[in-house]
Amino acid sequence: MDHVFDNWMWWIFNHLPFSYVVKVMDCFLFEGPKILYRAALTILILFHKHQGKLGNSGNLTNAVSHFCENMPLSEEKFMKMAFSIRSFSRNEIKRLQLKNELELNSRDRVSAMTISASHENLSLKMSHSFNGTAIALQPCKSDLLSHKELQTIWSWLPRRLAIYQPTLLFSTEEHGTSILTLFSRTSGHGPTIIVIKNMENEVFGAFCGSDWSDRHQHGNFLTYFGTGETFLFTIYPNRRKYEWVGITNQDVSLTGQMFMAGDNTTLTIGGGNGEGLQLDSELFNGQTKHCDTFDNEPLCSQPYFKAKIVEVFGID
């Protein structure tokens, strides 16, 4: 069935009559991509309702396409039905998108391939792919991650980022230990990956799904921001990913939606009855505790730690 729904957007733009597309795009300018989901769901509902009248087509993909081309409702009734769909919030759409992406990632890991990186003559086991093509990571400068460890983190990223390469944006070894420098060098680069090695040589960190410049969206007040793509992880001595609790739980409290926060004194990923990961203004003193947002264990052996090295990678 997957192949039937993979091209759902073409139901609208390739198979609906042009007059319907005009109506959809007119609403798109005001409501955004949400109307596309409404239109696609309306097509499915109508197709299911009229399927008995259409008879056995033998090919579901062609049947849906043919149904769209001969839409039985007028443009006005079609749009009215689309907007009558209830319980269709943007948060729910985002939650379902993330859940679907994680399921797709799981399939990729099960069918992970071993490919040859010809430019390095290395066999690399890739657990992430994009449209069926495994992406070999290029070597990236790092004082705390091996190439294999970086590959592991890359396999956890959202699928849409799989075709990009890592870039070292900030390192305490090279750029000093000021949180303002970290923000300055990472702002404007979109999602980033923060990796920390503590004095016990444990390695852990976080994928930050939003740009750190978004911390200013409420002025100078310290507030949480970000999306459910954000996650915490450990690399050494154990490898584990802690995803947002909202991916598997629909009823998420406000304390379970505290993804990222930062100002001139602190940087935090994950909140709610504890900070999942936090660093001070000098990127030296940190803490990691269980938090409601990720339902995680502390990322290292001690809840309060001293950072030996902090690195931040961009995705370019």
Tell me about this structure.
- There is one protein chain.
- This protein is of the alpha+beta class.
- Helix content is about 35%, strand content about 20%.
- The chain contains ten helices and 14 strands.
- The chain has helices spanning about 1-5, 10-15, 20-30, 35-55, 60-70, 75-85, 90-110, 145-155, 170-175, 180-185, and strands spanning about 115, 120-125, 130, 135, 165-170, 190-200, 205-210, 230-235, 240, 260, 265-270, 275-280, 285, 305-315.
- Strand 10 and strand 11 form a beta hairpin.
- Helix 3 runs parallel beside helix 6.
- The chain is elongated.
- The relative contact order is 0.11.
Descriptors for this entry?
316 residues, 10 helices, elongated, alpha+beta, 10-stranded antiparallel sheet, two-stranded antiparallel sheet
